[in-house]
Write a structure and sequence with these properties.
This protein is α/β, with parallel strands linked by helices. Helices cover 31% and strands 18% of the residues. It binds S-adenosyl-L-homocysteine (SAH). S-adenosyl-L-homocysteine binds next to helix 6, strand 8 and strand 10.
């Protein structure tokens, strides 16, 4: 066995008129899969979000770059406009790479986009990426699961915290298993309160991992009782992940020798 990287990524062929929905990983290009790196070079057009880093986009060769994310506080392009754009570009016979941060099916609305493409009979393929939580945990020396500490891990979105259609944080607290919250910086106060009401001890360790694997990377550690104030005091900004649970305590043990 001595397969070259090129041979591994050779199949499938990126055909004209097809849309590939791909994940670009957490930010640094070293986390790209071989297949996504190859597709970036082959695409005629790359429709990307704000979380796809410039370092990743610099791997594009002839592909036209179309940005559809949020910038400077302005809202992102509406989801149905993005879907319409993907369909138009595919019907023009172009090789369309829809590139998202992390994994396209983890809080990336990739499911909705794939559903629309299926409905319109546009051939597509899903190219997974490393979701930011897994990369950020590794970068922070926090094992996602750990015998004796956890038996499951929940990936949750914090963006709806406090609203009627929110998930049941108290029920999550009762599992005692660690939780990684995406999009939770603004709502961490409410989330922490609900988790404590659900039975998680106030001293439960929490880590906030900001801009993991990028030059802006920062982390802080706190407890469930103090995390909201710490996020504010240390001026943490999106993108950030909030890791809640005893797995966070491994960070101090692993950080010394892991370099
Ligand atoms: N599909 C993406 C998630 C998109 S939702 C994925 O699989 O990772 C956007 C949220 O992802 C951000 O608000 C933040 O919570 C998280 N995120 C994405 N990239 C990140 C990074 N490099 N560091 C920390 N959080 C990140």
């Amino acid at each position: 066995m001595n397969e070259s990287i090129e041979k591994i990524v050779e199949a499938p062929v990126f055909a004209r008129g097809h849309v590939w929905l791909a994940g670009a990983g957490p930010g640094h290009p070293r986390y790209l899969t071989l297949q996504v790196a190859d597709a970036i070079g082959k695409a005629d057009v790359i429709v990307h979000d704000a979380l796809v880093s410039d370092a990743v986009l610099s791997l594009a060769r002839n592909g036209e770059l179309i940005f559809v994310g949020k910038r400077g506080g302005r809202p992102s392009v509406a989801q149905d406009e993005i879907i319409g754009l993907l369909i138009d570009l595919a019907r023009q016979g172009r090789r369309v790479l829809r590139l998202k941060g992390g994994d396209p099916f983890v809080f990336g609305r990739g499911g909705e986009e794939a559903e629309a493409l299926a409905r319109e009979n546009i051939p597509f393929r899903i190219l997974p990426g490393m979701t930011s939580a897994l990369a950020a945990l590794a970068a922070a020396n926090i094992p996602a699961t750990m015998r004796g500490l956890s038996r499951a891990i929940t990936l949750a979105t914090g963006h709806a915290a406090g609203s009627p259609d929110d998930l049941d944080w108290k029920a999550l607290a009762k599992t005692g298993e660690p939780i990684v919250v995406y999009m939770g910086l603004k709502t961490i106060g409410a989330i922490a309160r609900l988790l404590m009401e659900g039975g998680l001890p106030p001293e439960t360790p929490v880590a906030v991992l900001m801009a993991a694997t990028t030059p802006d990377e920062r982390t802080l550690t706190a407890t469930l009782a103090t995390v909201a104030a710490e996020v504010e005091r240390q001026d943490f900004a999106a993108p950030a992940l909030i890791v809640i649970g005893r797995i966070v305590s491994m960070q101090a043990i692993l950080s010394g020798q892991n370099r």
